[in-house]
Amino acid sequence: MTDLVGRVVIVTGGxxxxxxxxxxxLADRGASVVVADLSGAALxxxxxxxxxxxxxxxxxxxxxxxxxxxxxxxxxxEFGAVHALVNNAGHFRNMFRGPFEDIPESxxxxxxxxxxxxxxxxxxxxxxxxxxxxxxRIVNVSSSTAFKGLGxxxxxxxxxxxxxxxxxxxxxxxxxDSICVNAIAPxxxxxxxxxxxxxxxxxxAVQGRCLQRDQTADDLVGAVTYLVSEDSAFVTGQTIHVNxxxxxx
Length: 249
Description:
- Residues 7-187 form the Ketoreductase domain.
- By secondary structure, the chain is α/β, with parallel strands linked by helices.
- The protein has one domain (8-242): Rossmann fold, CATH 3.40.50.720.
- Helix content is 43%, strand content 16%.
- The chain has a 7-stranded parallel β-sheet, with helices on both faces.
- Helix 2 links the parallel strand 2 (32-37) and strand 3.
- Helix 3 packs parallel to helix 4 (105-133).
- The longest helix is centred in the middle third of the chain and has 29 residues, at 105-133.
């Protein structure tokens, strides 16, 4: 198990589902974790501290750069530095699902404002500190939808494809500052609190994989841990496909 003792990691969208799993797992590996979300972050941080981990919870809105600057300031006040950002927060749980011509313009805008612009805003907030301390790690979250194509979520797939382009471009731009920028692309991960696909669709997702089972949040922890650690010091601009062999990246 990779040791993250001494590393400070921000996890956006850290109060629920995948983000909560990342935050708790990184803390278990010794990282000091900043759990950031619209709501619920304090409860997750309290749970981590209850298990002798180090964490704080911060309320953020990815569309509000000032809230992200405050997040970074709180991280520095509490832990003295920030070493990595996991850009997990996004617009998905309440997203419209249906034919492309029926997508409300407001929901299209929300997908790009939160998933793309929000990712950019969070990166802008952490990079000045990374430059001062001599480097850092940024882990963005794309999706299998950007590579496989998936009907009825065209706005989401397009936004997640933009994350890949942003990751590659920023890897070029921030490389001279020793800042590594990578992404992960999960396949469909069932959320017990949000039933977004029918049993039949869920079954088809499983059957299309080399490893024929549901993907879980825990399946992504290894890739995230690797990308925020020193083990990935010479890895940048990459998108790691964690999908059980649903497709080959």
